[in-house]
Amino acid sequence: MRTTYTLDSSTQQIVYVAGPALAVATSAYITPAAALALAAAATLFGSLVFATARPARTWRPVARHRDPLGVLRPPAMRLLLVALVFLGGTVGALDVAGIAVAGP
After folding, report:
1. Average pLDDT of each block of 10 consecutive residues along the chain (104 residues)?
2. Which domain holds residue 98?
3. DSSP 13-33
4. Count of domains observed in the chain
5. CA–CA separation, 25 vs 32, rounded Å?
6. Same domain membership, residue 11 and residue 49
7. Which residue, of 21, 37, 82, 89, has the greatest Cβ tally within 10 A?
8. DSSP characters for 57-103?
């Protein structure tokens, strides 16, 4: 399982770094429409590969006892949620402030 999570994490990081670079390169050297089409095709291809993979088709959920807090039962998860809410607020505020400063 550790190997699977490592592969998943590495693949996501590669996509996060290479994706925007590929989009910018495609926009600069071909056209922005080609970059959008390439992104759409890659998304469609990845979705189809995932949806048709045997584990995705054969997986069934396991019946579990319903907990009102669910994943937030451990105190560390509640702390992580609070931290991420503040992080999201900070990033959102910076986006709004950047637009406000750049305005007319």
Report:
1. 90 91 92 93 94 92 85 92 95 89 78
2. 69-104
3. HHHHHHHHHHHHHHHHHT-HH
4. 2
5. 9
6. yes
7. 37
8. HH--PPP----SSGGG-SHHHHHHHHHHHHHHHHHHHHHHHHHHHH-
